[in-house]
Write a structure and sequence with these properties.
Radius of gyration: 16 Å
Strand content: under 5%
Number of domains: 1
CATH architecture: Orthogonal Bundle
Helix content: 55-70%
Structural class: mainly alpha
Order of helices and strands: HHHHHHHHHHH
Number of strands: 0
Distance between the termini: 36 Å
Oligomer: single chain
Shape: globular
Largest sheet: none
């Protein structure tokens, strides 16, 4: 498994990243809106501990899902319509690090800045640039939002492998669901513009 510093295109905390227009106060209100509190944070950290050694297995499930749906995999395909293996591999490494970051990092301004960067990399503003890919230049917002369900539902079986009680697994799963929902809300910001 790559260390975060060796992941191509992963520039979390870089001074080169623009600041997120989302303030810590905005984030706090979003956390309140999705009912993400101190207990949620504790359970998300627990989830991170359980998922840490299973990240590649989780990604196998998620990538299998995308690969089995031509309308999704096309956003990782070159002009010939064939999936770009290098692009998929580079995004996969960052997606794995996103799992770790979501569960383990503090949700501070550096985290907000990187969520904004991820958001922009889904849009015409920055899609393909990080990896020099020639895939379609934007992932429609509808698919970004719809992905909340598979990203949430498929994680439960991995959380169940941590040796926790059913109640703890449920609490970790709910914390993950809240965190993924909040992240996708942040990723929707560039699409929504001022109405966000």
């Amino acid at each position: 498994m790559e260390t975060a510093g060796a992941i191509p295109g992963y520039d979390y905390g870089s001074a080169e990243l623009p600041r997120s227009p989302v303030s810590p106060e905005d984030l706090d209100l979003l956390k309140q809106t999705v009912l993400f509190d101190a207990e949620s944070e504790r359970h998300l950290r627990m989830a991170g501990e359980v998922l840490r050694d299973q990240v590649e297995d989780v990604l196998d499930v998620w990538y299998g899902f995308v690969a089995s749906h031509p309308h999704l995999v096309r956003y990782f395909a070159g002009p010939d319509g064939e999936p770009d293996g290098d692009y998929l591999a580079r995004v996969r490494a960052r997606f794995g690090q996103w799992i770790r970051d979501l569960c383990e990092r503090p949700w501070d301004e550096a985290w907000l800045d990187y969520q904004e960067e991820i958001a922009l990399r889904h849009t015409r503003e920055k899609k393909n640039q990080t990896d020099g890919a020639q895939a379609p230049d934007e992932i429609p917002l509808r698919y970004v939002v719809a992905f909340v369900y598979p990203i949430t539902a498929t994680v439960r079986e991995f959380l169940e492998k941590g040796g926790h009680t059913p109640d703890e697994v449920e609490a970790m799963h709910q914390a993950w669901f809240k965190a993924v929902t909040l992240t996708v809300v942040l990723w929707s910001r560039p699409y929504a513009g001022e109405s966000w």
